[in-house]
Specification:
This protein has helices at about 5-10, 60-70, 75-85, 85-90, 100-105, 130-135, 140-155, 160-165, 190-200, 260-270, 295-310, 315-320, and strands spanning about 165, 175-180, 205-210, 220-225. It has about 325 residues and is α+β, with helices and mostly antiparallel strands. The protein has a 4-stranded antiparallel beta sheet with strand order 1-2-3-4. The radius of gyration is 37 Å and the shape is elongated. This is Putative Ubiquitin-conjugating enzyme E2 Q2. It holds the Pfam family UQ_con.
């Protein structure tokens, strides 16, 4: 048995024009009652006269068809059901002409569905680096990340003997703390001769960045080998604690536009500079090469700033707490 919607509501005109499209058929149960959808009593659909209006079952045929299809137990449907549900996505308006596959496309999680990348589809493995969250607390790390990419790019394009410095990315597990090796010094300099005698091939530096970088300078210190102190005839702008004694690396001489590449170049040149005195190693014996500690470097830096009247960066206290002492295997 088929009935028109106007016959149900009883609000139609006395004479009906022939419909352009045949009316949809409504299923009626054997007892003569129209199959309708149970509504929420608090939100029942009503007519303009305030009377409740029943919602025929066919009104949500498309929606139920989608739900029925989604209930089929397939790996793809299981993934989609875990990822998001119909209720979580909210109401999706669909016209009477919408096909089932159109609705599935609207609710699809994969915008590139159907495209092949030539690789077999396997389980997704999470790529997780626990330290990233700790070292990237805020946007403070962005300048150091950018600088690291820049210097590594320069390093990859420049012959190592011409560059004079080397950064092993595997030794950097914190963007605020870098390990750098200076090498290939002028063989005629006292420092290069001492290094050759001691069997040392590079000077290992540590660079630490504070929260105010690049508006405040990084802290640059030598880790190994130990240099001869100024009081014993040493030089090369290396303090007794291993910190670099350079106005460039204080608030008095630092510029926010300075690049790390230029800093490394100037530090390397300062070590080879014979004025006021050339840098020398504390010991030329291969078996006696010691490291500098972070605390003696911090104290030496403060003393050098006080002696020359240079301004200590306001975030200098961060350097002592940024990752603890350096531990490298070389």
């Amino acid at each position: 048995m088929a009935m028109s919607l106007n016959e149900i509501t009883g609000n139609g005109p006395s004479r009906l024009d022939p419909p352009k499209n045949p009316p949809q058929s409504l299923r009626v149960s054997s007892d003569g009652h129209l199959d309708s959808i149970e509504q929420d009593p608090a939100f029942t659909a009503k007519s303009v006269n305030g009377k409740p209006i029943g919602i025929p079952l066919c009104a949500i045929t498309t929606s139920r068809g989608f739900r029925a299809d989604s209930s089929i137990s397939t790996p793809r449907n299981k993934k989609r059901r875990h990822a998001r549900s119909f209720d979580e996505l909210g109401f999706v308006a669909a016209s009477d002409n919408d096909e089932l596959e159109d609705i599935q496309f609207l609710l699809s999680d994969d915008e590139n569905e159907g495209r092949s990348d030539g690789k077999s589809s396997g389980p997704m493995l999470a790529i997780f680096r626990p330290w990233v969250v700790k070292s990237l607390k805020s946007s403070h790390a962005r300048p150091t990340i950018r600088n690291l990419k820049e210097v590594l790019d320069i390093q990859s394009k420049t012959p190592i003997h011409e560059l004079g410095w080397f950064i092993d990315a595997e030794l950097i597990d914190n963007f605020y703390q870098w390990i750098v090796e200076l090498h290939s010094f002028d063989p005629e300099t006292p420092l290069a001769k001492d290094m050759k005698a001691a069997g040392v091939t590079s000077v290992v530096l540590e660079i630490r960045f504070g929260k105010d970088y690049p508006h405040s300078p990084p802290f640059v210190r030598v880790i190994r080998p130990r240099f001869l102190p100024f009081t014993q005839g040493g030089g090369g702008h290396v303090t007794a604690g291993g910190a670099m004694c350079m106005e460039l690396l204080t608030n008095s001489g630092w510029s926010a536009v300075s690049s790390i590449e230029s800093v490394l170049l100037q530090v390397r040149m300062a070590m080879m500079n014979p004025e006021p005195k050339p840098a020398r190693l504390e010991s030329q014996q291969k078996s006696i090469q010691r490291d500098y500690g972070i605390w003696e470097a911090i104290d030496a830096y403060k003393r050098a700033c006080a002696q020359h009247g240079w301004q200590v960066p306001p975030d200098f206290g961060d350097f002592a707490n940024n990752g603890g002492d350096s531990r490298i295997l070389m």
